[in-house]
# Entry
Amino acid sequence: MLPTAIRPRLVSADGHFKLDHASVKSHLASKHHDAYDRALVDFAASMKGWGAAKANQGIMTEYTHPAKDRLGVADPRARLVDMDTDGVDVEVLYSEVSGFRYLYLLGEGGGTAAIRAFNLALGEFASVDPERLIVSYQVPVHDIGFAVDEVLRIAATGGRSLQLPVFPTELGVPDYYHSRYDPLWSVISETGLPICLHIGMNRALDDLAFRDPTPQNGITVPVIAMSTAEAMGMWVMGGVLERFSDLKLVFVEPGLGWVAWWLHIIDDMVTRQGYQYPSLRELPSTYYYRNIHLTYIDEPDAIQRLRDRLGVRNIMWSNDYPHPVSSWPNSHALVSEQFVGVPDAERDLIVRDNARRVWNL
# Structure
């Protein structure tokens, strides 16, 4: 490992923390508490039939890791201690609780109030040190007018990161190229905040997850990451990034290697195969390099061999605390190994400077 004095300063583009439901309800009017509790129960019951939930449960419960049960998973002050232990200056954080999937179940009035309460609870976690704990506020997609108001409120109160569901159709609303979202993309462009899309349960893979004969769904898990190609395609090929050229997208934990192939294919369909996409004025890959960023944890082959193709300004390191593949508490050692032979300027972009630019740090 490099001596402390010359280690690169690290910014993790993806870490996780647990948000307590009591914290959310502390910001929610008591008249909505019963509906909130019912929504949690109904959501938990519905998940029993999801293959995606089965796969996710296998990943997240049946593992051991030094960070798994640390106080820093739920306590912001303890988290700062664990960040210091790992030599990480700043973490971009995602709640383990996915409010997208149940808050709207509270219905008219209660749903919007619960979303606001959820985001206030996220802000409370970050308030211990908002320069180091960059929480990703969850933006609703059922009510676009409220979503616009919430983005403006988040930006006005110093928020730096927005999270949207990767696959909106799972929640019964159209894909992101639909014009219903245009007011939201417009206001997000104006704020300069990034849209973060974190991989997770993908209901389209339910059948595969149930057919998967392996322990911990070893067939399904890699496919979940690669299914990000569908989501990227909606943003790129659907013309969203043509219409809203200032948007910053971050796909979180999608993996890197397959994206190099995907970039070749989407351009090849135009240049060699003669496909035409009226929504695009440039080669499809142009929108990737201009607007899209990827986080990764530990892919030495991609860093050593594919970083130029992926774009050294488009990829960002993360320690994924406290998940099974997290590099905590040895992130500097891992970075040292991965970046042997990589120019310092490129290393610094990937482990720090890209994140500082994307999140306006």
Remarks:
- Residues 167 and 230 are 9 Å apart (CA to CA).
